[in-house]
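pasting for ref
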Amino acid sequence: MSIKTDQGILVEIDQLNTKLKKNPKNLTYVCRLASLHLDDNKISRSKPHMTNAIQLYKENMKTATLKQGMDLAETMVKFWKAEKYANKQQDVRVNLSQERDQFLQQVHEIAKTVITKQDSENEHLLSL
């Protein structure tokens, strides 16, 4: 990533943090923030936002849109892939922890609920 791109990510992170202070239960903002931290290689900063996004989706499953569900599922898969290795600094051991497996099961559960949503405007996202 270039320095310009890094600056863009940091600026968007700051903007989203400001927006979330006013509206902390905005699922779209929380998902985007988790994704941006992953883009910035900050898995530990992304994790609380990822957990919050999952909780928000579960609380608002009936009112959440198809797009919000797809964004969450996409961010969860991105997070799961980012945690592929147990310790990136010292050696390359694949992370086979039970926690990672449970997270993948959550991705599957949310994906199943997203598939059942009826939204003709964003239905094409499901095929992707």
